[in-house]
Amino acid sequence: MFRNKQSFILLGALIVVLGILVYLRQTAETTQSDLASREFAIKSGDDISRIFMVDQEGNRIDLKRQSGNSWTVNDSFEAWQSHVDFLIDETLEKVAIKGPVPKAARDNVIRRMIITGIKVEVYTNGDEPEMVYYVGGTTPDQLGTYFKHPDDQDPFIVHIPGFNGYLNVRYSLDLDDWISRTVFASERDQIKSVRVEYPSEPLNSFKITNGEQFDVEMDASVAGPLNKGLIKTFLSSFSKLNFEGYDDSKNPRYIDSLKNTVPLIILTVESFNRGITKMTVYPKPMDERTGTLYDKDGNQLAVDADRYYAFVNDRDRLLLIQDYTFGQVFIRSRDLILPNR
Fold first, then answer.
1. CA-CA distance, 117 to 3, in Å (whole number)?
2. pLDDT of 275
3. How many Cα atoms within 13 Å fall on the side-chain side of residue 48?
4. What is the pLDDT of residue 338?
């Protein structure tokens, strides 16, 4: 009798344990299914046609795919291709839910997200977004970022598996983070002509018209047999020339004053793929960022030997360009002539 009672107790306990296990498994499956339905990742970045990001203050970034897989930003500028690729390939495709936000932190996370969050809309060749979510702040350990779908009451902690860090900086609303820094990007066979002008030294100026036979315009006192190998190398140098950055420390008065001085070089490239691009180059005074302070004879330099100021086309934004990058195209008319043998 006692043994039968013990058996019933054990059987009951076993049934309870099995019931708990089944419940936990179903709950886990439901939770995983629920999380999967709330994912933030885009399955195929190749399908993305537009990425729109905006905050409560109206700061926005609108990236749109163009033909040839290029992108524009805010319908006004060529986008920085490598940054767009990184956003798509390393962020939009890889974000994953790490877990729910703890209940104790939920209200505070949502409150901060309303104030400082970034709304992200991802489009895939349609007028309606394929994915919409808000990006908020970071977790206390800075290994996760708060994300939330508009229709969800609860935010989630999101990360990228294998990456230790936060993600909100990847959704930057700083326009400078998205504008291409490319000045010239034409292959040799895409170039119609290149004009290099030295306003203070006109004898050094020249123009090359590209074709089966190069047509070179220069002062008659310099003209001679052309170094066609050097000309080919020169034209090939325009395949990818980027500026270093911006100098926003100068006020409008300084910009106007600089533009009223005689440029060091004016470089104009006409191409089939990019139209006409004109870059006007000026000497850059020495400052705390100057690398080379003295010339080879030990004399202190008045201008930066490593960097120049430049303007592209009619824009007033003051650019920094490096001699290391652009020095290869700052050649003179005499460089195009074969040396005397």
1. 65
2. 95
3. 25
4. 92
